[in-house]
């Protein structure tokens, strides 16, 4: 056991107390184990992390926000400074391209997100202070005062990593301790991030157990942990099966869980846009569907294409691009097997494979395009809208606008929905007929852009109706909204001013935006 | 069956299609049935209401907010104008006093709440518009586009009525159809309110099925309905047992449920306040605990009193007041039986009855005070903090400040927590030691006031950590926060301005408060 890497518990890197075994990362391009052995933690590690986090929760609740912001900014700077090492580790473990993906897109996105969290912390932007001077009531959002358990996904080794991504930054910003459950696909990347986080935490003077990390534990232990009422909340990004199992356990214990589960992100092409630039669109679609080997939550998994010549031409062009492409490396054998299974499922539900469907060397998978006509889709809408996580998309041919409307109406909740329209507005009647239906099925409605870009913005919604996420009112990306998920609403009734939290007092030296007697103001209350 | 009262389904008052039986209200003071017979609905009524609501959801999603506000204001005016009748019905069905409770407190509170909802609607205050001009992203809160099922409690025939209370007003304000499940303790009151709502709806030109009401259905049907994924959300106020059963069903189907479940609302008396005005406090406590026969979510169910002479004097004074009081009328035989059972449970867990514990004529119950010492409370904290819904409170004696801290730490989630401190601030060290612990156990922290007053204010929190409610981030009272529960987050990405909802466009003629590029403004965007 002494040869296993150390877990981060209670502010110290220490050997797992009760490892149930070990695992190693793999080079997905060659299906070969790489790097050191990491422990699969047992109950003792979990309980030790919980005990330490419970203590840290109290200290964090009352710590000054500027210290939290200081930590987030130090951590962001450390990530930027360590870019070469982080990118090398992540590339080795995920096979995602170094450029532009890891180095120029995901890494800066991750440190930027931590800095935006710091900014929201410094401005109290997530706390929504509301003051009613006449009623003697003052309310704001406050820490949960309990640990937040974050499950990171396989597909963003930095930006959604349980120890560095949006759920992490959000939970810490709200002054809660985080216990990160790294994804076993990229343990060394997660370890390196945790080392940077740990060092930044010591420099910023945060409680030692504010940030902890385990690499792996059995599903059964994970479910038991999700049902532990001592948790304040859970953040999860991953598969629908895993997410729903955790949600059931958490729900039963009254633990709020914010789970991002699955999405096929339908893309509708209105007829005019095919006339305008069908060929270019085929290229745009192909690029979006195969970028990152298609392993995006917002991958365009279904494209609705009008019947007729121009639609046919689009399908031919797209098929050619998919057919000519090299096989794409997936993250793991599990992802590869699930994708084979998903393509089989789509075929069984009535879709025809236009190209692809086969595996390649290592965990490679041939970019795959399937096809089904609109009536067949509607007849088997449930099976045909199952997510296929990887470089796979299903084309649905629609006879006319009413068919598009029926198809839109048949979707379950999704993260995104896209409509491509011609620039001259000639299809805007069709937009007006289709968009309201699609609007209510998705969290983000997109015009003329593939859904794979998820900007870190206060106006982003990386969320959507069930079953794409567990609640349609929340986003996991975009400060300060994502922070609010990990907060409790606190009202003070008739409490003397000197005993109130500073940001609810009359004097407002920090210029916090507050809703005072129905009006937003950053000023003091009274003569101040 | 033709003699049963009509249900409100699909915009019409009609006979129940499949009544499983009937029930009548009771005069709780005499335990005698009064008024007409109301149907217990079956599956056909439920499905008819669902179908009508699903259709109404689409129409409501796109209706102008001013029409919603118009409905809410007309309904509020109708309630005020019909006060005599409503108060007479509610008094007959609940035995709550006409003055001041029903006529001067609850009725105006209810119409005021509808008007505050209208105001939030007119100002788009619940929609949280966020615009990022550089990223081309614009987000706001929007209707769920699905029906909201509201379960009303027994204890507020107006202000929490499923057809008139905060959940109703909030769900409608967010432009969702409401199916109200009235409480069977006050069917005629609910019927009268529904008639006023229906008339206001026709005048305002809302979709006919925007507001529907059933009086009653079996628990099994209710659970099946809560698990219907066609619902957008559920609002529930009631017992913990019923609420948790509904929550389990809703969670499984991915239906967000906002449930207010139970609370004992601990009240801590610091030593100095007993010295200052112990006698007056005993009176204040007695009045709060017996008002409305103690049938409040925020009833002071546990009072923590320092040991020693002044504490003894407080207990003697309170015991005398409880002993001298007349028996209080409860809402129903069920409430009476549950309360007997709850008092038995407290005794079994180690509490001694100081006075009371017996039933009286009709559904009366003698105001009841129990006592336990601090160590015994801590040894059986789970059983001793079980809610006793009615004019019952448990006094816990605390040896010193550390004992108070341990007692505070032993509480599960509550709606409120109160600390009484002397006006001269001499106990503020004790406040600072105790308040942080209590703060994280409750939604509203109160100083020097009994918890039973729940002001309708934007800074109110009528919510709290589990198991007092299902999520610590939400309040069921206080606009606009309560409205957000019934909304979905919608982001628009790269959508041309003309195709955006009006409140997200550059021009802002309504002066909606919006977060534009990180700054709150009610102005236009660009040169506007």
Approximate shape of chain A: globular
Low-confidence segments of chain A, given as residue ranges, are none
Radius of gyration of chain A: 24 Å
Gap from first CA to last CA of chain A: 63 Å
Number of distinct beta strands of chain A:
23
* Quaternary state of the chains: homodimer
Predict the CATH topology of the largest domain in chain A.
Answer: Aldehyde Dehydrogenase, Chain A, domain 1
Strand order of the largest sheet of chain A: 15-17-18-13-12-19-20
| Helix percentage range of chain A | 25-40%
Q: Tell me the domain tally of chain A.
A: 2
Looking at this structure, what is the CATH superfamily of the largest domain in chain A? Answer: Aldehyde Dehydrogenase, Chain A, domain 1
> Biggest sheet of chain A, open or closed, and with what strands and sense?
7 strands, mixed
Q: Find the biggest chain interface.
A: A-B, 74 and 74 residues
Number of helices of chain A: 16
- Given helix and strand content, the structural type of chain A is alpha/beta
CATH architecture of the largest domain in chain A: 3-Layer(aba) Sandwich
InterPro entries (chains A, B): Ald_DH/histidinol_DH (IPR016161), Ald_DH_C (IPR016163), Ald_DH_N (IPR016162), Aldehyde_DH_dom (IPR015590), Aldehyde_DH_Superfamily (IPR050740)
Pfam family, one (chains A, B): Aldedh
Keywords (chains A, B): Oxidoreductase
Protein name (chains A, B): Ketoglutarate semialdehyde dehydrogenase
What is the fold's blueprint, element by element?
The structure is a homodimer of 528-residue chains.
Chain A: E1 7-9, E2 12-14, E3 22-27, E4 32-39, H1 43-61, H2 65-81, H3 83-94, H4 98-122, E5 130-132, E6 137-143, E7 148-151, H5 166-173, E8 178-181, H6 187-204, E9 211-214, H7 219-226, E10 233-237, H8 240-253, E11 257-260, E12 267-269, H9 271-290, E13 302-306, H10 309-324, E14 328-329, H11 333-348, E15 352-355, E16 364-365, E17 368-373, H12 374-379, H13 381-384, E18 392-398, H14 401-410, E19 414-420, H15 428-439, E20 442-447, H16 481-484, E21 487-493, E22 514-516, E23 519-521
Parallel strand pairs in A: 5-22, 7-8, 7-10, 8-9, 10-11, 12-13, 12-19, 13-18, 17-18, 19-20
Antiparallel strand pairs in A: 1-2, 3-4, 5-6, 6-21, 14-16, 15-17, 22-23
């Amino acid at each position: 056991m002494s040869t296993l890497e150390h877990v981060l518990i209670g502010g110290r890197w220490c050997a797992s107390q009760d490892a149930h075994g070990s695992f190693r990362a793999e080079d997905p391009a060659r299906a070969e184990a790489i790097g050191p052995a990491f422990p699969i933690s047992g109950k003792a590690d979990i309980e030790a992390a919980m005990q330490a986090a419970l203590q840290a929760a109290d200290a964090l609740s009352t710590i000054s926000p500027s210290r939290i912001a200081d930590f987030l900014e130090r951590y962001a700077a450390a990530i930027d400074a360590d870019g070469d090492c982080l990118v090398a580790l992540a590339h080795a473990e995920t096979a995602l391209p170094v450029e532009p993906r890891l180095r120029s897109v995901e890494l800066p996105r991750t440190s930027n997100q931590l800095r935006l969290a710091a900014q929201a912390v410094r401005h109290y932007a997530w706390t929504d202070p509301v003051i009613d001077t006449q009623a003697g009531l003052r309310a704001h959002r406050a820490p949960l005062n309990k640990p937040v358990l974050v499950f990171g996904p396989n597909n963003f080794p930095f930006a959604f990593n349980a120890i560095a991504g949006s759920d992490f930054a959000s939970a810490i910003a709200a002054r809660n301790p985080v216990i990160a459950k790294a994804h076993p696909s990229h343990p060394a990347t997660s370890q390196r991030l945790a080392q940077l986080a740990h060092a930044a935490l010591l420099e910023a003077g945060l409680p030692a157990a504010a940030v902890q990390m385990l690499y792996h534990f059995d599903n059964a232990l994970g479910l038991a942990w999700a049902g532990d009422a001592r948790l304040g909340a859970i953040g999860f990004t991953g598969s629908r099966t895993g997410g729903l199992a955790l949600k059931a356990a958490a729900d039963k214990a009254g633990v709020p869980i914010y789970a991002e589960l699955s999405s096929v992100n339908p893309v509708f092409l209105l007829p005019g846009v095919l006339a305008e630039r069908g060929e270019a669109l085929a290229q745009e679609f192909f690029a979006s569907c195969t970028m990152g080997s298609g392993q995006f939550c917002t991958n365009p998994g279904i494209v609705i294409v009008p019947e007729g010549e121009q639609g046919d031409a689009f399908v031919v062009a797209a098929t050619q691009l998919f057919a000519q492409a090299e096989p794409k490396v997936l993250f793991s054998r599990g992802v590869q097997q699930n994708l084979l299974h998903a393509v089989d499922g789509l075929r069984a539900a009535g879709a025809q494979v236009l190209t692809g469907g086969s595996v390649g060397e290592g965990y490679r998978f041939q970019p795959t395009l399937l096809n089904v006509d609109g009536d067949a889709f509607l007849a088997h809408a449930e099976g045909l809208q199952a997510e296929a996580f990887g470089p796979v998309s299903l084309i649905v041919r629609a006879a006319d606008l009413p068919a598009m409307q029926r198809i839109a109406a048949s979707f379950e909740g999704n993260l995104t929905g896209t409509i491509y329209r011609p620039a001259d507005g000639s299809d805007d009647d069709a937009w007006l007929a289709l968009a309201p239906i699609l609007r209510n099925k998705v969290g983000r409605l997109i015009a003329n852009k593939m859904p794979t870009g998820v900007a870190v913005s206060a106006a982003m919604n990386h969320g959507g109706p069930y079953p794409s996420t567990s609640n349609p009112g929340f986003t996991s990306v975009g400060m300060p909204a994502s922070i609010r998920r990990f907060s409790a609403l606190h009202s003070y009734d008739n409490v003397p001013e000197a005993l109130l939290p500073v940001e609810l007092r009359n004097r407002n030296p920090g210029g916090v935006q507050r809703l005072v007697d129905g009006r937003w103001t950053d000023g003091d209350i009274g003569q101040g």
